[in-house]
Write a structure and sequence with these properties.
The complex is a heterodimer of chains A (64) and B (143). Chain A contains 3 helices and 3 strands; from the N terminus they run αβαββα. Chain A is α+β, with helices and mostly antiparallel strands. Chain A starts with a helix and ends with a helix. By secondary structure, chain B is an alpha+beta fold. Chain B has one domain: Glutaredoxin (3-Layer(aba) Sandwich). The chains are: A alpha+beta (64), B alpha+beta (143). Chains A and B meet through helix 1, strand 1, strand 2 and helix 3 of A and strand 6, helix 3, helix 4 and strand 7 of B.
Amino acid sequence: MLLATRLALAAPRIAARGIEASEFVAEAERHGVRSVPAIVVDDRYAWAGSVPEAVFVERLLAAS
Amino acid sequence: MSLGERDQAAIREAFDDLEQDVEVTLELGPSATPVTLLAAGGRELDTSAITRELVEAVCGLGDRVWLRVVEHEQAGKWPRTTIAGPSGTGLVYLGMPAGYELTTLVGAIVESGRAESTLTATTLDRLATLERDVAIDVFVTPT
């Protein structure tokens, strides 16, 4: 989550949201979230699990 | 849901290092709207009331943290906490920032209060290549 925050602060084109999955169950189910952290990019499920900064950025750019 | 003395001391210490002001906007829905949470053992909780208590307690621990509370009459995706520094919004958090997610709230304030990014030069170079808007949603749970 904090990495997404850092990215949003550094890049005006990036917006980061954290969503508490047990409160927003419909949102989580809509994206097929089964484990956390789960990353959704541009409203599409991207991946689950924490990854290093460089990996996160490359996956983000590939998914966007 | 109050903060323990050790948590308060740790958060106050983290906020002492803020280099710039941070604005926290807490948006709440109608009061007394209980939400049944599996993460809370299936109990019904007034998430807006708990979030308000928690966010007010956290924000009160930093001289450079400014809290604004907005109350909405209509139902919606509340509670919503927006954390922003002078360079823009760092994080919008939907739900109660309780449990492990208290770290997310505090961490987002600390990150928004930094004068310079801690991302690597490589990351900053890659971000500079972005040509359109990107929305990242991170789904989490408090346990």
